[in-house]
TrEMBL record:
The name this protein goes by in its record: PROP1-like PPR domain-containing protein
An example Gene Ontology molecular-function term: mRNA binding
UniProt key word Transit peptide: yes
Organism: Anisodus tanguticus
Origin superkingdom: Eukaryota
Key words of the record: Mitochondrion, Repeat, Transit peptide
Keyword ATP-binding: no
Length: 621
């Protein structure tokens, strides 16, 4: 086994950077230094139990794993999934294209929601959520066509399941088989719709019944589907336990890649690296999907290791995919390295891969955040194409980007195009969000009212868009009225709504009320609140120098199943600093969580060290 070492000699550099992956690696070689310059705070350190390896090729674990803020983008969940109703294996949905994008969306700091949090929501939601799809090869057009065909699928079995929400799926199915055949096509359609509506708990029950009653002969992809559902509903530990119960002949690479994707979605570095190494031990071929998962993970936790993953891909002759380039482009943008971002785009084009709409959207966001508005607008015009009416589906991406530029005129123009051609639900949501960013509350409310009139059974995620706008503008009274309107409409209130409510009260200065809402939500519901709901309250307590309540929020996050990260400890130490009291044993606590301080956090340590020496203490001693 031989270790990757960063290129130090000129001869080694020349040898390594001659080919595709190495050119990309060269383009990303300054990510770490750029990141350290711009993000000294917010570090997360993780040490893997053993070096990350593949087929004797060792990926060295650095002592420092840096955490960054992801770019803001559309709300999404972690690894979700959909079945391809046209596939041969029925409800084995885990082999379509935007898998890693779904997980990337899930890893966002500002709007991430775990799958189990939304497992029974959106019963009437007509739009599909982001998917966990385990291939990197489909083009955007192919994905669009495939999704369009899926949306036309209807299922009598699904209708039977949702018609009796109080009954266990097993009882529904026992009755169903009395007068109906259980076919793969019917099951595929039902599973597809259950996943689209994020009813993962019901989908899992259906999968379990099918296996226990031996109604279908399970394939590896059916087992992979089960692993994915268990990870969403019951957590990674249960999913990993189930993998051990799968017949050995079906424990293929797709099983473990599914588990890996869910580990990455939880930003569990230790477990992700363990699963990756397990795949190596089982001698599975290294896939682009697995490498992309590591890139996603390290983009969020340790950008220095991105180059190591690329060198591993080069060693194993794994060709980068479109998503590989997207991840690298975003990583560069997060470091404010715009020239580096553009260099990766050029490398991608040189390899014959043209940026798709999502890639251009990522570029535009980073141009905007970097103050390069002219470049951002040029990219937006490219996204729009020659005729926006022919590219209507781009509107939902353009609206929030133009809003971020402060271009109310462009938002108005694009929304008018949507209105003229029967706006879709996603268009309306994007428009509400855009007008909110432009502080035009009246327009946001007008679009929302049109949306509510057209789709009377909106889900909580749609209400939450307007609720967040009220929170951002400290409109507590309107926020309360909207929540009452949600309840009156029969809308299920879940983690997205709780998060918006928490923010609403925090922005209004009522932190204790926000804390109370979150505590009741966690106690009275089986759904887990979003981690950011805890963090926003914790940060307020830290600002107040309220050590007791800051510690309490950290404890409650752990109780909810969230892994402690560097950001939580930073917030905790800040509370001790503001309170001017020592923080005993903090280094040991972090070490127990496999976290190790960077330079910035080490400086914070010094301020709360009860045994530190100062000139005054030396005199007194």
């Amino acid at each position: 086994m031989w270790a990757i070492r960063r290129a130090s000699s000129s001869s080694y550099k020349k040898q390594v950077f001659m080919n595709r992956a190495s050119r990309i690696c060269y383009a990303t070689s300054e990510i770490s230094s750029q990141y350290l310059k711009g993000h000294n705070e917010g570090a997360s350190n993780v040490i893997s139990h053993r070096p990350l390896t593949f087929r004797g090729f060792q990926l060295k674990s650095h002592g420092l794993f840096m955490e960054s803020r992801d770019f803001s983008s559309q709300a999404g969940t972690k690894s979700s999934g959909e079945e391809d109703s046209d596939s041969d294996d029925g409800f084995s949905e885990l082999e379509s294209s935007t898998a890693t994008e779904a997980i990337e969306e899930a890893n966002k700091v500002d709007e991430s929601v775990s799958e189990q949090e939304l497992s029974e929501e959106d019963l009437e939601n007509v739009e599909a959520p982001q998917e966990l799809e385990l291939s990197d090869t489909e083009t955007e057009t192919e994905v669009s066509k495939r999704k369009s065909s899926r949306e036309r699928v209807s299922s009598a079995l699904y209708n039977a399941i949702v018609a009796a929400p109080a009954l266990a799926v097993s009882k529904i199915m026992d009755k169903w088989v009395e007068g109906n055949d259980v076919t793969r096509a019917e099951v595929a359609a039902a599973m597809l719709t259950l996943r689209k509506r994020r009813m993962y708990g019901r989908a899992l029950q259906l999968s379990e019944w099918l296996e226990s009653k031996k109604q279908l002969t399970f394939t590896e992809r059916d087992y992979a589907s089960r692993v994915d559902l268990i990870a969403k509903v019951r957590g990674l530990k249960k999913a990993e336990d189930y993998v051990g119960m799968i017949p050995k002949s079906f424990r293929s690479e797709v099983i473990y890649r599914t588990l890996l994707a869910n580990c990455v979605a939880e930003v569990d570095v230790k477990k992700s690296e363990q699963i990756f190494n397990k795949m190596k031990d089982l001698e599975f071929p290294l896939t682009c999907f697995a490498c992309n998962q590591l890139l996603l993970l390290y983009k969020k936790t340790d950008k220095k290791k991105i180059a190591d993953v690329l060198l591993l891909m080069e060693k194993e002759n794994v060709k980068p995919s479109l998503f590989t380039y997207k991840t690298l482009i975003d990583a560069k943008g997060q470091c404010n390295d715009i020239s580096g971002m553009e260099q990766i785009v050029e490398t991608m084009k040189a390899e014959g891969i043209e940026p798709d709409i999502n890639t251009k959207s990522i570029m535009a966001k980073h141009y905007i955040s970097g103050g390069l508005n002219e470049k951002a607008e040029n990219v937006l015009k490219e996204m729009e194409g020659g005729d926006l009416k022919e590219n209507r589906w781009v509107c939902r991406s353009l609206l929030p980007l133009y809003a971020a530029l402060g271009r109310a005129d462009e938002v108005s123009r694009i929304w008018q195009v949507c209105e003229e051609s029967n706006p879709r639900l996603d268009d309306c949501v994007a428009a509400v969000d855009a007008w909110g960013k432009l502080h035009n509350i009246e327009e946001a409310e007008a679009v929302f009212d049109k949306m509510a009139a057209k789709w009377p059974t909106l889900s909580s995620k749609h209400y939450s868009v307007l609720l967040r706008i009220y929170a951002n503008h400290k409109m507590l009274s309107k926020g309360k009225d909207l929540v009452k309107r949600m309840a009156d409409s029969g809308c299920r209130i879940g983690p997205l709504t709780w998060d918006a409510l928490v923010r609403l009260y925090v922005e209004a200065g009522e932190v204790e009320k926000a804390d109370s809402i979150l505590h009741k939500a966690a106690e009275q519901n089986r759904l887990r609140p979003m981690i950011n709901s805890y963090l926003v309250i914790m940060e307020q307590y830290a600002k107040r120098a309220d050590v007791h309540n800051t510690e309490k929020m950290l404890h409650r996050m752990r109780q909810a199943g969230y892994v402690n990260r560097m950001s939580q400890y930073q917030c905790l130490i800040r509370a001790y600093i503001n309170a001017k009291v020592p923080c005993y044993g903090i280094a040991e606590r972090m070490k127990a969580d496999n976290l190790f301080p960077n330079k910035g956090l080490a400086n914070m340590f010094a301020q709360v060290d009860a045994f530190r020496k100062t000139p005054v203490s030396d005199l007194l001693d």
